[in-house]
Design a protein that fits this description.
This protein is about 55% helix and about 0% strand. With about 325 residues, it is mostly helical. It has a domain of about 200 residues. Helix 5 packs across helix 6, helix 6 packs across helix 11 and helix 11 packs across helix 12. Bound molecules: zinc ion (2 copies).
Length: about 325
């Protein structure tokens, strides 16, 4: 009987459920424990942070730092342009093939799949800074920054908020395997470093160094920069519009997140692809999206209506 309790297949089954984002792993968790932190997810996040210390083992080079910055900017764009402005707000249109490619690229940021991301973000917009908001700083700064998504009850996709995406089987499939693009990206970083060492030895890089800087360190920085929009951008900055929530416009956060820091603007008119409403509000994501439109990869970009722009003069 005792042996049956520690049966390894049980643990393997649980591990497989976690890896495949199988929500039935929560079935046996009593409702009063569902708001507690989910140990495997906490462990992965802590591990990524600890792994940053390996920069002291692999050292650094100018090439590794440039690649880390490139990896950060590229994946920040995937999050803001694809996960946020497309999958959450449908602020432009793409073909089904490009849509799936965008979903796969977004997964390289290690922020789960597009349906999970969009569903919780849509909940945020309908419940902003109320008791039901999944990540309002009113319920604690740390909760809004990162604890919220580490809780067991936030492991699930809020399906009723993403009914429009559930009809695409390829997107539902990707939600199970959201970690594959992330792992491939990490391997790609290592391979790139090894190839650079082979072809351009004077750069002083190698696979391990590029892996640590362009994958591990870059991912952790990307995590925190993304989280600031849920935490800092609902606390610090200017409130141009009376949006009945705490969203702020913050130029520094906008720089770090390629335009997402114009968060009060965004809460005023979430359907627009543009978040920096005026020319002096730098929104690099929007600029790149306009370029992609010219190249014919995306279409029907939704703009900010004149009435909303005119309101700005009367805002705080
Ligand atoms: Zn917000
Ligand atoms: Zn949004």
């Amino acid at each position: 009987m005792i042996l049956k309790k520690v049966e390894p297949t049980g643990y393997l089954r649980e591990f497989a459920k976690w890896i495949l984002n199988d929500e039935s792993r929560l079935d046996r968790v009593p409702s009063e424990k569902r708001t507690r932190l989910d140990p495997p997810r906490v462990a992965v996040l802590v591990l990524f942070h600890i792994a940053c210390l390996s920069v002291f083992i692999v050292g650094w080079s100018a090439a590794a730092l440039v690649l880390a910055l490139g990896s950060y900017l590229l994946r920040m764009f995937f999050i803001t342009a694809f996960y946020h402005r497309y999958f959450s707000h449908r602020s432009y249109r793409v073909s089904r093939g490009v849509q799936f490619l965008m979903a796969c690229l977004g997964c390289t940021a290690g922020q789960r799949g597009p349906l999970w991301w969009a569903s919780h973000h849509r909940v945020h917009h309908t419940t902003s800074d109320s008791d039901k908001d999944p990540h309002s700083p009113r319920q604690g700064f740390l909760n809004s920054h990162l604890l919220w998504f580490l809780r067991r009850n936030k492991f699930v996709i809020e399906r009723k908020y993403v009914k429009d995406w559930l009809r695409y089987p390829e997107l539902c499939w990707l939600e199970k395997f959201d970690w594959i693009p992330l792992v491939l990206f990490g391997l790609g970083c290592y391979l790139l470093g090894e190839l650079l060492a082979l072809w351009f030895p004077y750069l002083g890089v190698n696979g391990a160094q590029v892996f640590v800087w362009a994958f591990i360190v870059s991912t952790v920085l990307l995590y925190h920069a993304t989280y600031t929009i849920n935490s800092l951008a609902h606390k610090f900055g200017k409130m141009r519009y009376h949006t009945r929530d705490d969203s702020r416009n913050n130029w520094l956060l906008a720089l770090l997140t390629l335009g997402e820091g114009w968060h009060n603007n965004h809460h005023r008119y979430p359907a627009a692809a543009r978040q920096g409403f005026f020319w002096w509000e730098l929104d690099l994501t929007y600029i790149v999206l306009k370029t992609l439109e010219k190249l014919g990869l995306i279409s029907e970009i939704r703009e900010v209506p004149a009435v909303v722009l005119n309101e700005a003069g009367r805002g705080r």
